[in-house]
Amino acid sequence: MSSTVDDAPDHADTAEKEKRGTDTYATYANMFFYVREVCFFLTIAVTSYAAIHNAPPLVSHTNAAVPFFKQNAHIVDFYTGDLSPAFEKISESDLTFVMYYAPWDAESQVVRAEFELLAAYYSHEVHFVAVNCWHPSGECRRHFNKVHHFPVLIAYPSLRSKGIQYRGVKKAYHMARFLKVVLRPLIRVHNQQDVLALITKHDAVMVSCVDISSSKSGYLAAYTSALRALERDPLQEVSFAVATSRKTCLTLGFDEDVALPSAKLHLWNETIDYEGDWQSDRLVKWVFSNIHQVAVWVTLPGSKSMSLAPYVEEGPALVMFTPRNPFFATSPYFDLLREIGLEYYNCNNNSLVSSLAQHLATRRATSKTEHRNEEKLCFTPIAKGDNYCPRTTSAPTCATVTLPAAINFTISTRLLREKAEKLKWDTSCEDAQQRLRSELWKAENCLVPLAEERLVVPNVNSTSITIDPKVLALRSTHKQLECKRLLLGRRLHVPVFPKKASPNEGFDFGQLRGLSCSNNRSLSLLAVDSLEFEAFAKYLGVDTSRTPDRTAVVIFNAAAETINVLSGPILKATLSSFLVNHTSNTLPRSIRTFHREEYQRACPSGSFCVRELNSSNFLPTVLNDSEDVVVLFHSPLCGMCGSASLTFLTIARLFRKTCNLRFVRVDGENNDLPWHYTMESYPAILFFPAQRKSESRIFPKTKVVSVQTLTHFVLANLRPESRLQSLLSLHGNKRQARLHTLTALHGLNSQYRLSKLNRSSILSRRRLKQRSQYLRLLHLALSDARLEAEATASLNRYYRLSTNLRA
To answer: Is residue 534 exposed (0-12), middle (13-18) or buried (19+ Cβ within 10 Å)?
Structure first.
């Protein structure tokens, strides 16, 4: 009984606890439910409130588009970015040149002027369109949203739906050459002489053989491949030719049983037959994968690029800087380089290569006479100088001529007829002279047809017809464009021709043949336009603006960091000897020396100047044992060099009263210095102490170049006597000068005691005593301002005595 009574309270407590726990759980569950419901209703309320009262996002409105080009008849500017009307204009034209631009882009603004000049020159043959591809509401921005660089220049021919992007130099002269090639990408050839003439003008020639009488697809594929090649070769260094009959193909070396269409790639040392599908993209890929050249024109983009890397990484490269005039058919100096390159790479003594080199030499010898004859046919000099105006005779209204059966035209008859009707020529030159001098691109106002311009073709497989005045005027237009080309080419730069070699040149050209294969010092032969890339020539140590014909030759070795410049006239003998001497490693290294006219001027009176050094006077100046020299190495490409130069000039002015202390500076980027004086970074400041040049010190790179830090650097490296003189002249800092005199006195006493122990000469000990005496007088004088003149005199006597003792 007792045990039962005792267990009853325990069961009651347990039941009560269970009931209490159940009530607590229910309470928490109810609270969680109510909180969840309240949060749900609050979320709905806040979302509804935000949806009702939410304002539209604040977006800034774009400014209204404005015309980018001048309102003229030459360029149609779709400045609102509309593509549909632009492509309608393109579809109606035989050839359209389009510039996609961004109005804010700096390069687009520069190219705008070049595009306007180009349109004024080619307005009779090409339609020019400009499209704003940056306006937010324009079609161009929506369709071409992945364009990251402006401007983009694309030519749209009528026979090809896809455009041809121009990737060359964005100057009017070069773009005019590009459009000329687009107008006639294929050249018709009839015999081997035509092919040889093309090889002498171009690096390679692809000859397509098609039978145009049976099918036009082969001709269209050859035509399209010539156009597509212009994207990689905008100035057509690789020529594309075509033969339109099987009979002509046989005379060009094609087999009689060859399947047409077919093609051959004529290089300087071999001919390659095409084997593959007759498709334009495969033809272009085949041409550029098999081409190899003896000399290459290199076009630099004007920014960081790898254009020169494939040539200079393989070894040294010979770079010829010469004018590349797009209006002239050839460059005589480049022909000279090709002629020498043919013999230089003729390792197998190939007679065909030697024959091609001889043909180049013959054409180069007559190029000057031929150019002068062309000018005489087009122009009559009106005054002394380079201003020319054509003759004022008129062309006949009708003529009976014979035309060949097949004509290679790339412009439709409709457009030619329209342009012939618009021809109105002004035969007076006097009224156009002022306009001709100010607007050289509008020279057509002073150009007229020539009377002797008559077309006479032998009557072989041809039909005799009578040309109406419109076609005759069209032919006259072509002749006038050729005359205008000569005029504008002369305005860009006068034609240059190498001097004729004397018969007794004294050089054995047999040494040059196959020289590239004789050892491992072969060169890459490059040519660079000196008119466009004059800055690059100056970087290599050649100022082409001062060289004859703006032509120079440099051998650049990137691995050895050496440059060799050809001195004297550029002739076949001198250039060949230059190559032979390089192969035998006998060429002296050329040192770049940069002279600026403003640095050579005398310092104006009342001003303080720091002398500018160059490669020729750097070593004699800094290694002068009688002077302490502080040198600032700077670079025109350095952004911090401007502030450092100002601080350097301030310090030089403060230390101007210190004897035998010189401050100079040198352009380390454009002056070749010995390797141990070449700086890795700019600005850099070096101190060359007198009589201890091997102990030169460099300003710490971890410190900021300021007046205070640079002053401490100079004072710390000066000799004691010079330091005292500098401290005395710097703002009257006499307290610090007295401390330095005590330090100097302590040093002199130590030297005097050592001289007694070493039994030095009586004269040396006497001078040490005199220096010590002068220093005591100086220390006493510095304590009184009234004795400043006596202190200065004592310091000068001490300085002269110290100099004599060191000597």
So the answer is: middle
